[in-house]
Write a structure and sequence with these properties.
It is found in: Membrane. This protein has helices spanning about 5-35, 45-70, 75-100, 105-134. By secondary structure, the protein is mainly α.
Length: about 130
């Protein structure tokens, strides 16, 4: 039996490329600042590590939920909306933190976009289970 997960796979691929780019940014800063472990005295490296870490904290879980939604038969429009919003939100979050470690419009969009995806996914999943159990 073949299961079509092409929508989830699209966003997993796009987000993997973004994750790769964030990792390359860290590697370049480690070379530039001669820091092997940790962040040393480099503020740029500290920010890059946090951007990468924040991505690693949120994206795997939201991708897992996207796959589960796709397996449950969620509409392609909903899946593309959530996947697209997550991708844009993660780009904005990275841009925002690079602009300033304080509040910025890009970081705000990144956080709100990521949290919107999480909450919509949670609502969908709870609603799906409750709806199928009644």
């Amino acid at each position: 039996m073949t299961v079509d997960l092409s929508i989830s796979m699209l966003y997993a691929g796009l987000l993997a490329l973004l994750y790769f780019a964030l990792a390359v940014m860290i590697i370049r800063l480690r070379w530039r600042d001669r820091v092997g472990i940790g962040t040393g005295e480099s503020k740029d490296l500290e920010v890059a590590v946090r951007i990468h870490g924040n991505f690693a904290e949120y994206v795997p879980f939201t991708l897992l939920m996207l796959v589960l939604m796709e397996l449950s038969g969620a509409s392609p429009m909903l899946l593309h909306s959530l996947g697209g919003l997550l991708f844009v939100a993660r780009i904005c979050h990275a841009i925002g933190l690079r602009m300033t470690i304080g509040p910025s419009w890009a970081r705000t969009i990144g956080v709100l976009g990521t949290f919107t995806v999480l909450l919509v996914q949670a609502g969908y999943m709870i609603g799906y289970v409750v709806g199928t159990q009644l």
